[in-house]
Amino acid sequence: MEIARRSSAPLLLLLLAFLYSLLLQRPVFAARKAYVVYLGEHSRGSGSVSSWEASKRATESHYELLGSVLEDREKVQDAIFYSYTHNVNGFAAYLEEQEALKISTYPGVVSVFPNRGYKLHTTRSWEFLGLERDGRVPKQSPWRKARFGEDTIIANLDSGVWPEAQSFKDDGLGPIPSKWKGICQNDFDESFSCNRKLIGARYFNKGYEALVGPLNATFKSPRDYDGHGTHTLSTAGGGFVPSANIFGYGNGTAKGGSPRARVAAYKVCWPPVNGSECFDADILAAFDAAIRDGVDVISVSLGGDPVGYFQDGLAIGSFHAVKKGITVVSSAGNSGPKLATVSNLSPWMFTVGASTMDRQFPSFIVFDDKRIKGESLSPKGLPGKRLHPLISSAEAKLVNASARQARLCYLGSLDPSKVKGKIVVCLRGITARVEKGEAVHQAGGIGMVLANDVDDGNEIVADAHVLPATHITYSDGLTLFSYLRSTKSPLGHITRPKTKLGAKPAPFMAAFSSKGPNTITPEILKPDVTAPGVSVLAAYSGAVGPTGLVFDGRRVAFNAESGTSMSCPHISGVAGLLKTLHPDWSPAAIKSAIMTTARTRDNMKEPMLNSSFNKATPFGYGSGHVRPNRAMDPGLVYDMTTTDYLGFLCSLGYTTAQLAMFNGEPYACPSTPLHISDLNYPSITIPDLQSSTKVARVVKNVGPPGTYAVRVVEPRGVSVTVSPASLTFEKVGEEKRFEVTVGIKEGKTDGGGYVFGGLVWSDGKHDVRSPLVVKRSGSS
């Protein structure tokens, strides 16, 4: 593999500039914080006014509104740092708390909320998704029918892009689609350029600047200095790149989910401050621009703690995008395996968990008479087969370090006199996995074994360690630690990693993948689906090493990363394919097609497992693991429009006045409120079943005429009947309604918690599957 040999100067300059910016303050706003004042959607009237004039008028109206609060025109000019003037209506400004409360009561204001921070969802590979093992595309592949997503425009809200990456070459592509209205923003970075593949890039940093103070020109570029944005964008829409690998591992032809799509980068994420990298004010500005620019899919590999939908910049921005026919795909978060940790909860967003694939990078730790398999992307193993001394990091503690720091291999926690020339066994957790290897390396160790804790179970990750290393499961770690405790002079050897295909079982859920239930609206199952998110190989930035840490001077063209950040763009790419193949499908239809064709069994034809190798549930995988080829011909879809989402919000208590502004045109909540469980979602969740309840759904035929019969897998202790039990369709676009009656079985009133089942509509060719999630009222 070709290693990009670029200086680390850009990264160092960025870090220095960031540290400098933290020293600067805005004294005039010392008592104020940044807020977003959200006014709904712009109403453009008859359309006789030019877009420039409309934007100008919108900006003036924002200044007028804030002026009525601050009563000082000069203060208003200094306070507002964003005006959202295209689709999203509102502004971001420096306000005191009392000023924010006052303006929130004004007519025409939907909500006012702080400039909240979000995290990128990577844990700091590539899946075949329809390719054969040698990278060739089968002649009958649906990918060819979908033209590999040709001329679909996929936007990525992330940390920017490395435009020189091979995945963004424009060889063989025609002119940029005429619908594209965006720009290549390189006003402070002339080295940054776009082409017919990477057709646009922008950066948004004013919300970030509101927190850290004035920024210099280093921050005024869409260039990716940490690798995350390049990795996710190339996963979604990167072109074909032969001989892609990292240190020779995983060698093959890399491609994104929509390899002939056009891509655009919207940089909204920056070096972390107080644990956050991306902020509401910038995210809303990016959504507003992307909608205007003419994109088809927006991929968002970031998230924050769940809040109300009108206090959430991601939920607001994505609603306006979906209303314009743009599919928005987001990551579920990396706070698993605990329940109720999933983020990005609105029903109009497509939320993705992370699971493994059937490729591994095995590296063995050999000791005693045992040979335990781990995974690694270390450039080399230990030489020969000679055994070396083994030591637990806890036994190698430096005098002034705590026992916990030593167990977790913090930098500076290990005693060189105890570590030199040895393989050190470290415990996973808290600090970066690759940083633990650097701690061993700095102390003179020659290798590292990284052992999981109980929460991480069997999930192991292949990382580009700085020394020979391997990552092993929790149970295997117990075996190794037992050997260390029982042996006076333990010895071992770490083998060089290899690439292995066909690993079993696969897929299974990643331990880090956030889980349901939905903490804002439990009637909506989240995540929606799962996709590959462990050791995903994709393009990378030339400004940073594969570990993403300052001490790593290596440079790679492709890197393996893990997180729901990596699974999200898999779905974005598939959505791009479906948009090309079915340009008339709504975002809801695209989501439904992917959800109802997903699988819940692994490659051993057994139910999918979690990282502890126990049976996984829809709270982990949603509807299941994506199957792109099946999604192209789903048979039936559960479709929705803006009206459905507004009815959903009515049922949550939002007012007609709020929703009319949100919608940008008159709207009245229905006289009979929608029951939330009746939202036409592709999954069914009943979080408070008392004795018996009914939910309704409507399916639309998107395939040939036919008759579908239903079959049901009842949740434990729950009765389920569907009426009618069969549906006959005579033409494309025809819709049929059915009801599902769910009750508690007689004598089955004990037990508690959620139980899981499903229903499937089948015509013999298409299986249209929906998970069924039920919790009896009052159970814990």
Describe the 3D structure:
By secondary structure, the chain is α/β, with parallel strands linked by helices. The chain is 23% helix and 26% strand. It is built from 19 helices and 37 strands. The strands form nine sheets. It has a seven-stranded parallel β-sheet with strand order 7-10-6-13-15-16-26, with helices on both faces. Strands 19-18-24-20-21-22-23 form a seven-stranded mixed β-sheet, with helices on both faces. A five-stranded mixed β-sheet has the order 30-37-36-32-34, with no helix packed on it. A hairpin with a 2-residue loop joins strand 18 and strand 19 (370-375). Helix 7 (228-237) packs parallel to helix 14. The longest helix has 20 residues, at 51-70. It starts with 8 loop residues before the first helix and ends with a strand.
Characterize this entry briefly.
This protein has 780 residues and is α/β, with parallel strands linked by helices. Helices cover 23% and strands 26% of the residues.
